[in-house]
Design a protein that fits this description.
- The protein is mainly α.
- It has one domain: Helix Hairpins.
- It is built from 3 helices and no strands.
- Helix 1 packs antiparallel against helix 2 and helix 2 packs antiparallel against helix 3.
- The radius of gyration is 17 Å and the shape is elongated.
- The termini are far apart.
C-alpha cells in the first residue's frame, strides 16, 4: 500500500461525504456525512503518520475523534429537540434557532 492509495481513498471518502452533505436535506444524513469527512481526514493523518514513522498524525487523529464524539452528542441533542418541537426534519424549513 503506497501513499498514493491512502491519498486516493481518503479523497474519495471525503468527496462522498461532502457530496452527501450538499445534496441531502435530512439533518441526520448531513450529520453522518460530516462524520464521514472527519473519518477521511483521520485515515489520511494515520496513513501518512505511518509512512513518516511519526506519532504526530495518530495523536492528532485521536484528538479529532474526541472532538467528533462531543459533536455527536451536541448535534443529536439539537436534532432531537427540533424534531420534538416541529415534528419534521427538513433543513429548509428549520428556522427555530434564529434569535
Amino acid at each position: 500500500m503506497g501513499s498514493e492509495f491512502v491519498l486516493f481513498v481518503s479523497a474519495t471518502v471525503f468527496s462522498i461525504g461532502a457530496l452527501g452533505f450538499v445534496i441531502r436535506k435530512n439533518p441526520l444524513v448531513m450529520f453522518m456525512s460530516v462524520e464521514l469527512m472527519l473519518n477521511a481526514v483521520n485515515f489520511l493523518l494515520v496513513g501518512y503518520s505511518s509512512f513518516l514513522n511519526s506519532l504526530d498524525g495518530q495523536i492528532f487523529a485521536l484528538i479529532i475523534m474526541t472532538v467528533a464524539a462531543a459533536e455527536v452528542v451536541v448535534g443529536l441533542a439539537i436534532i432531537l429537540t427540533i424534531f420534538r418541537t416541529r415534528h419534521e426534519l427538513d433543513v429548509d424549513h428549520i428556522n427555530i434557532l434564529k434569535g
